[in-house]
Structure formats: structure tokens, C-alpha cells
Write a structure and sequence with these properties.
Radius of gyration of chain B: 23 Å
Number of helices of chain B: 15
Order of helices and strands of chain A: HHHEHHHHHHHHHHEHHHHHHHHHHHH
CATH class of the largest domain in chain B: Alpha Beta
Largest sheet of chain A: 2 strands, parallel
Number of domains of chain A: 1
Low-confidence stretches of chain B: 1-43
CATH superfamily of the largest domain in chain B: Periplasmic binding protein-like II
CATH architecture of the largest domain in chain B: 3-Layer(aba) Sandwich
Number of strands of chain B: 10
Strand order of the largest sheet of chain B: 2-1-3-9-4-10
CATH class of chain A: Mainly Alpha
CATH topology of the largest domain in chain B: D-Maltodextrin-Binding Protein, domain 2
Low-confidence stretches of chain A: 1-12, 554-558
Number of domains of chain B: 2
Strand content of chain B: 5-15%
Helix content of chain B: 40-55%
Strand content of chain A: under 5%
Oligomer: heterodimer
Distance between the termini of chain B: 57 Å
Chain lengths: 558, 360
């Protein structure tokens, strides 16, 4: 059996596996349709706008995008890993509540945090105004960091994206058998040594997964960079598409972005090589946290406090101030509807994304043929595309499908079916799946990798079918992982804006839509209430998430 | 094989049943999510709108329209260009009857994309000045905004500058704030200058303007106004309703800031100040044309026009309608008489020109 599960030849596979193979390839194909639509634009002849791009814009776009990606990448790694290590391996005052509070920035959409910080830190904002007032400075007298800049964008995105690395890395640290760490200590490694040489390499898949998610989100970001006046690849796509009305060149740019991400992921997979990261020992010991005392404890506390305060507390405070300021106008009767619409969409999308991720990840485990691998990887690329581009990739095939059926019915039966799927929640949920499948897939994949293949073999030899192995063995084993995946997609959908805006049915609003409409109309204060509600709705699952991770501690009973 | 098929079916059923739920729920609340077949008989009691105007700006008017005529209005609001793409892809089966969007440039794009239909209405052509509508009857302006120069009172002598062209003068070096060239309001402003002065002169002007900027373009129009009052620059180019919105808004700080801003109406001795419209057209796919026209006529009625002037500090497109006090305070001005459809035709040229001039 193990040889079959690793084999590259489908003809060897037992019947059961071929079914999985087929299903996963079909799912992956379906999910890849919008991406293929975008990539297909590459086949169209390029026009004079490419010359224009090349002459005036592209260097700027590439430079800014690269700096943004590297900056955010470093930022989320440093903050994410440090805080994950401190909260899982050390003990200091406040560790307990900080371990979940550190996740909270995830609930704040990037463009919202950008708005709030601009409100606070810009030249006309309260901070600079009171500094000037207090010290009697004039306009040119002093230097103050400009928030609306490339550096500012790096900071904003880092603050809301580091939780991906933190969460996954922390879970990995907690799940690591402490035996491995103890062995390294008894073999003479210092605590730092065993961190660098054992814990960190063991957590590598989790760290990389978090990093990839954060980077894909960074590349897809439009709201923040656009507001900050930083021209990146994404703003370039919008400029070409909507400023010059050239959908072909814009889609070609998007396709390039996709290829770039695809190669990034390939390089990562390649560098990981044949290394496997599941536990080989069945002995788990309770971790003994390092007790920090004195200034060390204070420092640890401060290090963990800072990302929470900057990434959550301050912006949430600003949002609350705005909410109170505009309470009369904000809370209209339809507010509850917005809330329930948002929740409902997020829950359904999370269920779909995680179910599909399970099928894809498991069949990759069963039959790792190149076809399955490539199909799965392609399906997961949607996360790196701006929501609007995904939406366009959904609109085109859905409308084509609807119109074709309609035409056929007209031709043969003189009937009209109109638009069957376009403009319905099906189209919207499909777009969410395309965009966020990557999130659930990464999480589920990482979870599955940690289960020893021997488990599968034993279960199969005892007579379970593959589906049985998945539902009876794997799913219970990775309950924590599944919940994590569900909650990640849930929070992401809650925050999602561009695809919702364009694909939603008539009269269907969500919190994100309301917040955007206010902010876009430059009524920032009025965006406060819906934005705060998004954050609140996101907090509950985030806290849940953290308790799940805590319970996932290796060797502990759930 | 069997089990996996069952499993996939199960997933599909969950997905589908889940999808249909919100639609049913919506129906309880008098919301139509039309997943069902479009009725063969034309439904005259409903009107479906795709709008690039935000819901909260449009909703009060839609409610009035419904109350007056007993017509139920369904709305999707979103970003103009994305909505246009949706309209285009949905083609003849689109359920939208009416497309509302800001900026003549976008209205023109909708017209060329073939998603609008021609409307001939005596009422519309006689109430609306020719400049405010498409010459071929594909779209009609419903409200107007101006994009003048604004200055900080007490810091600038308003007689020192009287044209957009002068924004490029040496004297304003480091004194001007304006948002990015990615914004369509700036694209349309530049388009109007290309029409008036030609491409070469406008490009030279744009270079001069960029050299005079106090900071890299960032933020929206309100941000420029705030920056000016805070001392970062002296002159701002912004749409009037943003200033009006700050004056009439909930936020006290904004009201104070806006109070310190004065308006200079540029180019009063030649072509006039740059203006633009929010407009509306009947979609090519609409089989509900009469109701759609009824809606456009309503938007031009005294009631609707004065709403725009009062609530959103925009100028009415129908000259007989009285202006709000805020607008009156800013004074009369002469608007650029250019046919707004030209802005759309020149939009791509304007965008490329701004790139060449280094306008971020």
C-alpha cells in the first residue's frame, strides 16, 4: 500500500483511489476556471499600452511591489515567529491572554487599518496637530514619518497579516513533541540552539504556509496601496483596466502576477524536497515552559503586547470613537440585516472551502500524481489575485454559461431561462471559494502532513475505504486543523470586499460593503460602525481559534 | 468510487441548499433575488438598477420614486467599472434596466461598450441642457459637480490665480495638493484641458503642476482639503461636494476645517470651470424601458434635483431648480460648456499623458 500511495502511475492504483483522483482533478478544474479565463488573455495580441507600461510605469510597479512583498515578508516572519515562540515556550505575566489577543489583528481588514492610522497620524490628524500645538512647531519645523507611503503600507499590512504566521507557527510549536526538544537539550544545545536547530526547522512547513498566505494577501491588496498612493502591480492592473479601458493588457498583467506566484510556490515546494514533517515518536511529554523573570519577563511581555496594541487596540479604539460620534446616523434599521448577511455568507463559504480542501488534500495524499498536484496547486492560486480580478474571472464564464443555455432554450423550445447563476449567491460563493480555497487548503494540507502515513496503512489493512480513513481517522485527528481552516476562511470572507461588491444579487448588502461605501465617499467616520462590527464578528471565531490551538498541545487530551 | 461520488453529491447538495437559503430569506423581506426564470410578460412594477453611486446617496430618492409610482426598485451598487464589466458580460439577459454612474467618462465607456440603449424623450431633451446629456440619447446627466481650485482663507490672495493653467506657474512651487492621476476626476479634468489647449500644451502644464506639488499625490479630495488647512499646502483641486459634505457632516473637526476654505472659480474669462455629471442610461438589455424612462424623468424632477442639492451639495442639472444655501454661498460661476461626452473620448489619452508627466 505505501508504494501505491506514492506511485506516479495511475494504472497501478486501486479503483478507490482513481475515483478520488478524478474528483479532485474535476474540482480543481472547476475552481481554476476564473484563473484560466484571466490567463487566456495572454493569448490575445498585446497592444500599444504595453509600450506605454514599459516606458513609464512598469519599473515603478515592480520596484514597489518587490519592496512591499519583502518588507511585509520580513515583518510577519519576525513578529510572527518571535511571539509564537514566546507564548508557546516561555512563561511571563500576561502570556495567557496575550496568546489569543495576538490573533485579533486578523479581524481587521487591511484597508480599514490604513484608514484609521491615516486618520490618526496624518498631518492634519490629532497626533501631529497636538505635537505642533504643544511645542509650537510650524509646518516645516519638524520631521514626522509619512504614514501614506510605501513604508506605511508595509507597516499596515504587516500588522494585520502577521497573525497568519503567528497562528500556524505557534500551533506547530505546541504540537511538536517536546521529546525532540529535550533530546536536543540533553545533547548539549542551549535553549536558543535548540530553537534554531530543532524547533524552527521542524516548524518550517507551518512558517512557510503562514508566510505564503501573508504574501499572497499582500500581492492581492488594492485598498491599502491605492489609498496610500503607492503604485504596485495591483494598482497598475486597475489603472490599465479602468483608467485606459484596456481589459486585455490588464488581464495580461494579472496573468503575469499569477505566474510569478506559481513559481514562488514551486520554488518553495522544490526547496522542501523530500523532507517529511510528521512525528515519528508516539511519546509526548508536557512542555515545561521557561519561566521568565524580571526584565526578561517585562521584555517578553512588551514584545507580545506591541503587535496587539498597534494591530488591534489602537485601530479598534479609533473605530469606536467614530462609531460613537456617528451613532445617530449609523445604526439604521437594516444594520442587523447587514450583520446576518455577512455572517451567513462567511459560514457557508467556510464550509464549502474546507470541504473542498479536504477532498483535494486527501486525494493528493492518496494519489500524488503530477496531474493531481498541479491541478491542486493551480486551484489555490486565487488568493494572490485582487478580488475584483477574480470577480471578473467569475462573471465572464458564468454569464457565458447562462447565456448559452438561454440561447439553446430559445432556439429549441422558444423559452428563455434568463440568467440562471449570474447575479445570484451561487456566483458570489463560487468567487469566495476561488479566492479563499488556498487558505483552507494550506491549513488542511499542513494538518494531513503531520499524520503518519502508517496510520492510513493500518486503517486500510483493517478494512476501511479511503473515505472511511478520511472521516474516521483523519478528520477526528485534525479537528483542530479543520476548525482553524474554517475560521480562517470565515474571517476572510467577512472582510472580503471587491468580489462581494460586484457579484452580489440585487438589494444584498454586507458589513464590508457598507463600510466601503462610506469610506469611499470619504466619510471615514461613518465607516466606523460597520467596520467595528466586522471586527467584533471576527473576534469571536479568533478567540475560538486560539482555544483550539491551545488544546492542540501534543500529548494532551482534547 | 461509489463512496466518493456520494460524498461529492453530498457536498454539492449542502452547497446548493445553503445557497438558496439567503435568497428565500431575502424574499420574506420584499427583496427579489431573481434566480428564477425571467417572466416572459414584462413586469412593469419593478425596476432593477446597477449603480456606481453609493446606496446611501441614492436610497432616499429611490424610496420616493417607489412611493410616488408604486414601482419596486431593486439595487446593486458597486464600483463603476466592475459593474460595467458585469453588465457587458451578462449581455442581453442582464436583469438591469438602468445603469447609474458618476463621471461622463464612464458614461461614455458604457455607451461604446454597447450596454446602453438609445432613448428619445421629449421631456428629457427639453428639461436637460444639451451639454448635460449624450448627443445620441444614450445617457442623461442627473446631477452636477464642479472641480474648482480651493484655497486656505487668509493665506492666499484669491485674485492671484484665476485659471487651471496658472497652477503650473513657478509661484506655486510646493504649494499645491491634488490626488492621484488614477482618479477619474483628475483624468476628466485633464481631458477637458486637452480638448481646450491641445495635448502638447497640456502635457507641459501637467509637468509644471507635478513640479509644484507639495507632496506626492495620496488620499482622496477631503484629504487634500485637510492637508491644506493643516498647513501642508495652500491650493487644492477638489470636487465641490466633498467640501460641502465636510461643511454639513457630523464631524465637528471637519466642519471647522472646511470653514477655512474658499473657492476660486477658474477660467471665468474663457472656457469656464470644469464640471462633470452623474448620469444614467437605460440598459440595452432592458425590456422595461418605459419604467426606466419614467425613473430618469423622476430624477430630473424638482423634488429629486433639490434633494441632490440639499443632501449632497451637488449642483442640479436643471437650471430652474433652486440651489441650497451652501451652494449659493460659493457664488455663481460659469461652467465649461464642453460637451461632456468628449471627456470620455479623451479619457485614455489623458491617463497616458499624466503618466508621461510623472503624475503619480
Amino acid at each position: 500500500m505505501p508504494s501505491a500511495s506514492l506511485s506516479d502511475k495511475t494504472s497501478w492504483l486501486p479503483n478507490d483511489n482513481r475515483g478520488w483522483n478524478l474528483t479532485s482533478v474535476l474540482i480543481a478544474l472547476l475552481i481554476s476556471i476564473p484563473l484560466l479565463v484571466i490567463v487566456s488573455f495572454l493569448l490575445q495580441p498585446s497592444n500599444e499600452n504595453w509600450q506605454h507600461l514599459w516606458d513609464y510605469l512598469l519599473t515603478d510597479y515592480l520596484r514597489n511591489t518587490l519592496i512591499l512583498a519583502v518588507g511585509v515578508g520580513l515583518g510577519v516572519l519576525v513578529i510572527g515567529i518571535t511571539t509564537a515562540w514566546l507564548t508557546s515556550m516561555c512563561d511571563f505575566p500576561g502570556r495567557h491572554w496575550l496568546s489569543w489577543a495576538l490573533l485579533l489583528p486578523m479581524a481587521i481588514p487591511a484597508y480599514i487599518i490604513a484608514y484609521t492610522y491615516t486618520g490618526m497620524l496624518e498631518f492634519a490628524g490629532p497626533v501631529q496637530s497636538s505635537l505642533r500645538h504643544f511645542f509650537g512647531w510650524q509646518t516645516q519645523d519638524y520631521w514626522f514619518p509619512e504614514i501614506r507611503s510605501l513604508g506605511g503600507a508595509v507597516c499596515m499590512l504587516t500588522l494585520v497579516l502577521y497573525p497568519y504566521v503567528y497562528m500556524l507557527t505557534r500551533a506547530a510549536f505546541l504540537e511538536q513533541s517536546t521529546c525532540a526538544l529535550e533530546v536536543s537539550r540533553t545533547l548539549g544545545k542551549s535553549p536558543w540552539g535548540s530553537f534554531y536547530k530543532v524547533a524552527l526547522p521542524l516548524a518550517r512547513p507551518a512558517i512557510i504556509t503562514g508566510l505564503v498566505l501573508a504574501l499572497m494577501e499582500t500581492l492581492a491588496d488594492y485598498g491599502t496601496v491605492q489609498y496610500f498612493g503607492v503604485n504596485t502591480f495591483t494598482t497598475g492592473i486597475f489603472r490599465i483596466w479602468f483608467g485606459m479601458g484596456d481589459s486585455v493588457t490588464a488581464a495580461q498583467l494579472s496573468a503575469l502576477l499569477l505566474l510569478f506566484v506559481f513559481f514562488l510556490i514551486l520554488i518553495e515546494k522544490y526547496s522542501r524536497g523530500r523532507a517529511r514533517f510528521h512525528h515519528t515518536s508516539t511519546r509526548y511529554n508536557q512542555i515545561k515552559r521557561i519561566q521568565l523573570k524580571g526584565w526578561r519577563a517585562a521584555l517578553a511581555c512588551l514584545v507580545c503586547l506591541l503587535p496587539f496594541v498597534l494591530g488591534f487596540l489602537l485601530p479598534a479604539f479609533q473605530l469606536s470613537v467614530w462609531t460613537v460620534m456617528t451613532a445617530k446616523t449609523s445604526f439604521t434599521t437594516d444594520f442587523l440585516r447587514l450583520f446576518s448577511n455577512s455572517l451567513l455568507l462567511a459560514i457557508i463559504a467556510a464550509l464549502i472551502a474546507v470541504s473542498l480542501a479536504l477532498v483535494l488534500a486527501y486525494s493528493k495524499r492518496l494519489v500524488a500524481t503530477p496531474l493531481v498536484k498541479t491541478a491542486t496547486q493551480t486551484a489555490a492560486l486565487g488568493y494572490a489575485l485582487p478580488g475584483t480580478i477574480v470577480a471578473v474571472g467569475v462573471i465572464i464564464p458564468f454569464a457565458w454559461f447562462d447565456n448559452t443555455i438561454d440561447q439553446w432554450l430559445r432556439d429549441h423550445f422558444n423559452l428563455s431561462s434568463g440568467l440562471l447563476l449570474s447575479g445570484t449567491l451561487v456566483a458570489l460563493l463560487f468567487a469566495y471559494t476561488v479566492r479563499f480555497l488556498s487558505v483552507s487548503l494550506q491549513a488542511v494540507d499542513a494538518g494531513l502532513q503531520k499524520i503518519k502515513p502508517g496510520m492510513d496503512d493500518s486503517a486500510r489493512s483493517l478494512g476501511l475505504k479511503p473515505l472511511g480513513v478520511l472521516t474516521k481517522i483523519h478528520m477526528p485527528l485534525m479537528r483542530g486543523t479543520l476548525l482553524t481552516a474554517l475560521l480562517l476562511v470565515f474571517v476572510d470572507v467577512l472582510k472580503e470586499l471587491p468580489a462581494t461588491l460586484i457579484l452580489r444579487p440585487f438589494n444584498f448588502n454586507t458589513l464590508a460593503v457598507r463600510a466601503y461605501e462610506m469610506a469611499n465617499d470619504e466619510k471615514l467616520a461613518l465607516a466606523g460602525a460597520p467596520a467595528l462590527l466586522i471586527v467584533l464578528a471576527g473576534i469571536v471565531p479568533v478567540i475560538l481559534l486560539s482555544s483550539v490551538i491551545n488544546r492542540a498541545r501534543a500529548g494532551q487530551q482534547p | 468510487m461509489k463512496s466518493i461520488t456520494k460524498f461529492s453529491c453530498f457536498l454539492l447538495i449542502i452547497a446548493l441548499s445553503a445557497c438558496s437559503k439567503p435568497a428565500e430569506q431575502s424574499n420574506d423581506n420584499n427583496v427579489v433575488v431573481s434566480t428564477e426564470t425571467k417572466p416572459v410578460v414584462t413586469e412593469t412594477t419593478e425596476l432593477n438598477i446597477y449603480s456606481a453611486r453609493q446606496e446611501h446617496l441614492l436610497k432616499p430618492l429611490l424610496d420616493k420614486f417607489s412611493a410616488n409610482n408604486g414601482i419596486k426598485v431593486n439595487l446593486v451598487s458597486g464600483r463603476a467599472d466592475a459593474l460595467l464589466q458585469r453588465l457587458e458580460s451578462e449581455g442581453q439577459n442582464s436583469e438591469a434596466d438602468v445603469f447609474v454612474t458618476t463621471d461622463a467618462g464612464r458614461l461614455h465607456r458604457a455607451k461604446t461598450a454597447g450596454v446602453l440603449q438609445r432613448v428619445e424623450s421629449q421631456v428629457l431633451t427639453s428639461t436637460l441642457p444639451a451639454q448635460m446629456r449624450d448627443p445620441d440619447g444614450y445617457w442623461f446627466g442627473i446631477s452636477q459637480r464642479a472641480r474648482p481650485i480651493m484655497y486656505v482663507k487668509g493665506r492666499v490672495d484669491p485674485t492671484q490665480i484665476s485659471t487651471y493653467e496658472q497652477l503650473a506657474d513657478e509661484q506655486w512651487k510646493g504649494k499645491i495638493c491634488i490626488r492621484s492621476s488614477g482618479n477619474i476626476y483628475n483624468q476628466s479634468l485633464v481631458a477637458s484641458m486637452i480638448e481646450s489647449n491641445g495635448e502638447e500644451a497640456t502635457e507641459a502644464w501637467a509637468r509644471g503642476l507635478v513640479a509644484n506639488l507639495a507632496r506626492e499625490p495620496k488620499g482622496g479630495d477631503r484629504d487634500q482639503i485637510r492637508a491644506a488647512v493643516a498647513g501642508e499646502c495652500d491650493l487644492v483641486v477638489a470636487n465641490t461636494y466633498y467640501l460641502g459634505g465636510m461643511l454639513m457632516g457630523d464631524v465637528e473637526e471637519d466642519r471647522t476645517i472646511a470653514g477655512q476654505i474658499g473657492i476660486i472659480w477658474p477660467n471665468q474669462n474663457d472656457r469656464g470651470t470644469h464640471v462633470n455629471v452623474t448620469g444614467v442610461g437605460v440598459t440595452a438589455a432592458s425590456d422595461n424601458r418605459d419604467v426606466a424612462i419614467q425613473f430618469i424623468e423622476f430624477m430630473l424632477s424638482e423634488e429629486a434635483q433639490s434633494h441632490y442639492a440639499l443632501e449632497n451639495a451637488e449642483y442640479p442639472v436643471v437650471s430652474s431648480v433652486a440651489q441650497s444655501d451652501t451652494l449659493k454661498n460659493w457664488g455663481e460661476f460659469r461652467a465649461d460648456a464642453l460637451t461632456l461626452a468628449r471627456l470620455g473620448e479623451l479619457n485614455a489619452d489623458a491617463t497616458r499623458l499624466m503618466d508621461r508627466a510623472g503624475w503619480k
